[in-house]
Design brief:
With about 210 residues, the protein is of the alpha+beta class. The chain has three helices and 13 strands; from the N terminus they run ααβββββαββββββββ. It has one domain: Double-stranded beta-helix, CATH 3.60.160. About 20% of the residues lie in helices and about 35% in strands. A hairpin with a 5-residue loop joins strand 1 and strand 2. The longest helix has 28 residues. Belongs to the AIM24 family. It is found in: Mitochondrion.
Length: about 210
């Protein structure tokens, strides 16, 4: 009896040892160890924050008590177009700047009496230009186009300066108004406009039907 009991105990111990060994192998089989990646892809939120924090390529600011002087600060290789003879100051590296005359669709603007001779200013380094209208008793205003709303320049001589690689200026004929406003400029895209007018310039917003 004692011998049978000992054999039973030994068999039980062997079964337990086999079960423990099987569990140990099973646990080792399903364990995975992976290294942490050295770099991660940026999230969309991080990209948007970076784009928001980035400085703009150009900035227009009206100066003077009579709003008769424009300060245009531009990044490197950004083109600035201004009326011929309106550049009065330059802050930057003159040796890196280039000024050329630009003809803006003379065959379409000429018959509408819209000015088409402009000065194109660019530089390989950031710069600031000071502009002043040639006509006396005129004021300046800056219009920022973000691509969602287009603007119509009703007066022929309203456009003083502009910048923006995607900004499009198209002359058009509008006979619905008086002959003084037949020659207009339709502006679309993204960029900055500097407009001039005699006296003070006011903004009036009207609702539909008013």
């Amino acid at each position: 009896m004692r011998h049978q009991a000992l054999q039973h105990v030994c068999l039980t111990c062997r079964h337990q040892a086999r079960a423990a060994s099987t569990l140990s192998r099973a646990s080792k089989r399903y364990v995975q160890i992976s290294a942490t990646p050295t770099s991660t892809e940026p999230t969309q939120r991080g990209i948007e924050a970076t784009q928001t924090a980035a400085p703009p390529d150009a900035r227009f600011e009206v100066l003077g008590t009579h709003s008769s002087l424009l300060s245009a600060s531009l990044a490197a290789s950004q083109n600035l177009y201004t009326r011929k003879g309106t550049l009065v100051g330059f802050n930057g590296s003159p040796e890196n700047a280039l000024s050329t005359l630009s003809l803006l669709e003379p065959f379409r603007r000429g018959p509408l009496a819209i000015p088409f001779l402009y000065q194109r200013l660019t530089s390989t380094t950031p710069y600031t230009a000071l502009l002043a209208p040639k006509s006396p008793n005129t004021s300046l205003v800056v219009v920022h186009l973000d691509g969602r709303v287009d603007w119509i320049l009703a007066q022929r001589n309203a456009l003083q300066a502009w910048t923006g690689p995607s900004l499009a200026l198209r002359p058009q004929l509008n006979t619905a108004l008086s002959p003084a406003y037949w020659g207009q400029t339709h502006t679309t895209g993204r960029g900055l406009l500097a407009l001039t007018g005699r006296g003070l310039i006011h903004q009036i917003s009207l609702k539909q039907g008013e």
